[in-house]
Design a protein that fits this description.
- With about 575 residues, this protein is α/β, with parallel strands linked by helices.
- It is about 25% helix and about 25% strand.
- The protein contains 14 helices and 24 strands.
- Strands 1, 2, 3, 4, 5 and 6 form a six-stranded mixed sheet that branches. A six-stranded mixed sheet has the order 9-8-7-10-12-11, sandwiched between helices. It has a six-stranded mixed sheet with strand order 23-22-13-14-15-24.
- The longest helix has 25 residues.
- The radius of gyration is 24 Å and the shape is globular.
């Protein structure tokens, strides 16, 4: 964290910023005073969660104006702290200074320095031979490899000794592409409209994300970059296109055609550049995908979970911005992707954030006593600063069971009983919200009526995708032997709550098996056993992709799933 700059009281335009418990004073030059606040803070080493690339589409960069005045960058409308009883909350990407001074407070959940919890644990449910992708015979020096899961939001890396399969280090961080765009479609659209974006996207994930993670892992293990002989990389199809420097534009419109799906081996120099420390001839194996929106992260999971080898019927479900689903029944593999949106990652929700210290992670309402209990990541040592996806799933289930939410997802003040005082005005009285906790500055951490609507749309999209895929095989949820729940969200989600709110409709907790980061697991298997790479390639070719928009039952099923039972 940067140390506070010296205060210049007579400076005509200064910006005081309270962030992470420290106070900073910025003295913008005249030509910087027209720059939006999020960019000013980034230049000062105080980056915000500009997850929508600063387009005003999310609340990741929300800050409080505790003193002075700023103006809206496009409209010129002034926001003056002295004219409000409570400090105005505003998007830093949409406001700038107006030539006078201002004072901002950055909530922890808006700071990019507030690191998320990233799941690098997994279950491998198949046996693996020791047959690494590169030979370790005759080498007097260590021979290392790295398995990488490239997520849209986060990236996880595992460094292994290829001579014996030992895990030497694990590292993870945000995907630096999130500075350029929050989700896959945003990044595709940016590449389609600006030719300079593709190399920027490649550099963001390769040189600014994966390379630092590899360097960190090597430092932890006491090895040098010379020892790294191979990388295996899994991720969704768009992420692998951007890593390879291949334009993803064709996946942004029907018929959503990727340039490549097959396994590719690319020299490190073509990905990271010739001037970096890694040997430019080091092979980087991009795992194969099945379709534009059923990528290598899913095909890696098909193998790692053992789903490929069991008769089923079984499901692999990865709940994220795109709910990706694989159904195995007999010799058939059916796959689909449904656009759930970023709600379960906390994006565009009133108090939403990714899982990190200070996030409300679980919510319980006792219907007999109408008492509320919230769990906070960090054990309560950190005050609540926001709400993450697992808590939103809990809230839908427990608030409905207690009657606080009706079947349509509307708040019921009468049924709320002793919790009636938790229903508070929101968004300047234009909305209503349920207060879960009191955050810093006595600001409520809450779930608004608008949030509930967004959550219902997300859970309905995933539920309808599952039911439509089952319908293609004439199956019901009760006939599924195992539902493998992949990813960090699935790992921490309460299974009973996911069933009760309708996210996993019609299943029982006994059917559901959280399996962690199966994308990373599959990349590790392929790195350590060349036959597993061949198996993953074969599995990718076997997946029959179901286009949900062409299924006549999907829309009606989606509408049905918008309610809470």
């Amino acid at each position: 964290m940067k140390k506070p700059l010296p205060v210049a009281v007579d400076h005509p335009c200064r910006l005081e910023v309270e962030a992470s418990g420290e106070r900073h004073v910025l003295l913008p030059a005249p030509d910087e005073q027209s720059v939006v606040l999020s960019e000013l803070l980034r230049r000062a080493g105080l980056p915000l969660n500009t997850r929508c690339a600063g387009r005003g589409l999310c609340d990741g960069c929300m800050v409080e104006l505790t003193g002075g005045r700023v103006v809206h960058a496009r409209s010129g409308d002034a926001v003056d702290a002295s004219e409000s009883v409570e400090p105005p909350q505003l998007r830093a990407c949409e406001h700038r200074l107006d030539g006078t001074s201002a004072v901002l407070r950055v909530p922890l959940r808006s700071s990019l320095g507030h690191q998320p919890q990233i799941v690098s644990d997994y279950q491998v449910r198949v046996s693996c031979a020791h047959n690494p992708l590169v030979s370790v015979n005759g080498s007097a020096l260590p021979v290392l490899g790295a398995a990488v899961d490239i997520g849209t939001t986060t990236v996880a890396l595992m460094l292994l000794d290829l001579s014996d399969g030992r895990v030497l280090a694990r590292t993870s961080k945000f995907n630096e592409q999130m500075h350029l765009g929050d989700d896959v479609l945003t990044r595709i659209n940016l590449c389609s409209t600006d030719a300079t974006m593709l190399p920027q996207m490649q550099q963001a994930v390769a040189r600014q994300t994966i390379l630092p993670l590899l360097e960190q892992a090597l430092e932890q293990s006491g090895h040098s970059m010379d020892a790294v002989r191979c990388l295996t990389l899994a991720g969704n199809t768009t992420m692998l296109h951007l890593l390879a420097g291949v334009d993803p534009t064709s996946m942004g419109f029907a018929p959503f055609t990727p340039t490549f799906l097959e396994h590719r081996s690319i020299d490190a120099g073509a990905i990271f550049g010739e001037s970096v420390a890694i040997n430019p001839k080091t092979p980087c194996h991009l795992l194969p995908g099945a379709a534009a929106y059923v990528g290598a992260d899913l095909t890696a999971g098909i193998v790692a979970t053992g789903l490929l080898y069991e008769p089923g019927p079984s499901l692999l479900v990865d709940v994220g911005t795109n709910g990706e689903i694989i159904l195995k029944v007999g010799d058939r593999l059916l796959g689909c992707a449904t656009a759930a949106g970023p709600a379960f990652e906390g994006a565009r929700l009133s108090s939403g954030m990714r899982a990190a210290d200070g996030a409300v992670s679980h919510v319980r309402i006792d219907p007999s006593t109408m008492t509320l209990h919230c769990e906070i990541i960090g054990g309560g040592k950190t005050p609540a600063i926001g709400v993450c996806g697992s808590a939103y799933v809990d809230f839908l289930a427990t608030a409905r069971a207690a009657g606080v939410l009706g079947t349509t997802g509307r708040f019921d003040r009468e049924a709320a009983g002793a919790l009636r005082d938790h229903l508070i005005p929101w968004s300047n009285g234009r909305d209503i919200a349920f207060r879960l906790a009191e955050g810093p500055g006595k600001q409520p951490v809450a779930v608004s009526q608008h949030d509930v609507a967004s959550l219902l749309q997300a859970k309905a999209a995933i539920a309808a995708g599952i039911l439509t895929l089952l319908g293609q095989a004439n199956l019901t949820p009760a006939e599924i032997k195992t539902v493998y729940l992949a990813g960090g969200f699935g790992t921490h989600m309460d299974r009973a709550a996911a069933i009760a709110c309708g996210l996993l409709p019609g299943f029982t907790p006994e059917q559901i098996c959280p399996v962690g980061n199966t994308s990373l697991a599959g990349a590790m298997l392929c790195l350590m056993d060349a036959s597993m790479l061949a198996e993953t390639c074969a599995a990718a070719r076997r997946v029959s992709v179901v286009e949900l928009n062409l299924d006549p039952n999907f829309e009606s099923c989606y509408i049905d799933q918008l309610s809470l039972a």
